[in-house]
Amino acid sequence: MDSPYSGVIEEISSSLVSxxxxxxxxxxxxxxGVDRSRAFSDFASTVALKLAKRLNKNADEIGNAIKxxxxxxxxxxxxxxxNGFLNFNLNRQWFAxxxxxxxxxxxxxxxxxxxxxxxxxxxxxxxxxxxxPWHIGHLRNALTGDVLANMHEATGYDxxxxxxxxxxxxxxxxxxxWHVKNSTKPEGKFDQWVGKDYVHANKYMAEHxxxxxIAKVLQLMEQDGTYEExxxxxxxxxxxxxxxxxxxxxxxxxxxxxxxxxxxxxxLLTKAMDLLEAKGTAKRxxxxxxxxxxxxxxxxxxxxxxxxxxxxETIKVLVRSDGTPAYLAKDIAFHMWxxxxxxxxxKVKPFIExxxxxxxxxxxGKDGKELRFNxxxxxxxxxxxAQGYPQMLLRLxxxxxxxxxxxxxxxxxxxxxxxxxxxxxxxxxxxxxxADDLFRxxxxxxxxxxKERFKFSDAEYNEIAGSVALAxxxxxxxxxxxxxxxxxxxxxxxxxxGNSGPYVQYTYARASRILxxxxxxVGSTKGLxxxxxxxxxxxxxxxxxxxxxxxxxxxxxxxxxxxxxxxELSLMFSRFYEQSPVLKAENEExxxxxxxxxxxxxxxxxxxxxxxxxxxxxxx
Length: 620
Prior knowledge:
- By secondary structure, the protein is an alpha/beta fold.
- It has 3 domains: about 5-90, Arginyl tRNA synthetase N-terminal domain (Gyrase A, domain 2); about 120-275 and about 315-420, 3-Layer(aba) Sandwich (Rossmann fold); about 495-610, Isoleucyl-tRNA Synthetase, Domain 1.
- It contains 21 helices and 17 strands.
- It has helices spanning about 5-20, 45-55, 60-70, 90-105, 135-155, 170-180, 190-205, 210-220, 225-250, 260-265, 270-280, 325-340, 390-400, 435-455, 460-480, 490-495, 500-520, 535-545, 545-555, 560-580, 590-610; strands at about 35, 45, 75-80, 85-90, 120-125, 160-165, 255-260, 285, 295, 315-320, 345-350, 360-365, 370, 380-385, 410-415, 415-420, 485-490.
- α14 packs across α15 and α18 (about 535-545) packs parallel to α21.
């Protein structure tokens, strides 16, 4: 079912196409450029401006010629031409009634969409190395991935939330090497302990040449049944379990974890490298510093993408001369499996029987049930901006063997800093600034603010402080475009009066309180909205395209669009609250009209907060 917003755009666009043709102009519905107006009308079209540019004529003259042939679309009261725009004003009573009826039916689920129905997507996040706790940079990856998964589910996609565990990388080998070398004993939360141990290892490596020892450990970790392989997997699993304690604090969940060691065990790497060689994309390198390695020589690639041209080093090693694979090789193999290009005999079993969301977390491993998988249509990877070049090489390899490179989407995100500065895993500057520390501090600060502002029981304070802390962090992380650098600010994140999650929660709670106090049932909207102010109608118009906002944000992979929309809604609600009293409305019809708008507002804000993973609080 189309929303009233989409319906109006379709009606106006269709009428404009007919009127333009009658006036002697040929345009398509897409070229009419109809959208909600923020200036002189309710909706506006740019068709006259586009025709004027194309034909080198006056836009107002073209607009008036089209207007003269225009039959007013359903729900439109008037149209005028101004500065080249065709401005349409709606019948307010009809549109408000249509919007409120639409938003309040089906238990308020109409902002959700079926645009992705029948399509599958794998979203991979945060894929943190299992040798440290999450720090504030990892958290941006995790929250972005979680919300993208929510967004795709809300628009009808079949979503698999996947966590890739790099248990055979160099960092993990360094952690295992150091643990064996020093026989250190774990203390406290395992990811915190192993992360600090890793910092000690890096200090030692800076003063001693340990490359050969670590390379040997890495080779042994890649061989089934060795002490190093079993120790590495055991340490990694303990670290991951501790990381998931952090994940659950932030309401981040997954469906499956795929381990790098299991990718090798399933011979995905061999299949992938054989396929690349057969397609002529990769080869055994002869001579030079990469002699004996297996890799891609960009100089051999025809029609090389422009962004890969001009590299100082044209050879990208996939498998080293000693047989150890580079990360990119394993990533290529993994994505060939994701897209159904190659198959794997993975076995899966529960890693966590029941997460706080009620679902199990499955893991690949040496034993378990056979995983049957036919591939996905879309693979989304949330990866730091610095990994742009490897992601381009990944797409190059996938395109060469299957032509499916468009099925891979790389969502790059910028670095994260606290106002006190950047963090480093190797140097240990994250210590005291991990995701655990951030949540603990947020909850303490939220509790202080709530006690100063509101009156609750001790039990309520604790529960609400946790919800507000999570809202503060999630919104602060998601409010910017993912590609932008984020400097985390406590003052902004925990503000109840600005661009923040707690501010949106507060407006939702304020609307809830009004509805509780009114004790008035709206019933049918028939006959309502006979009198509706500009502010009230502005809120209705903003509510009308909630589903379209969600669809657009999902298609563009922009969680920040939802944050911007919620702030705009909250600010509009504040004006509504000040200018349109509900409990002291001038008559019963006006009161019921305003209550109906409040009901729709709560539905939209509640649904959008849910997609962002933020609680919609009834009281604050």
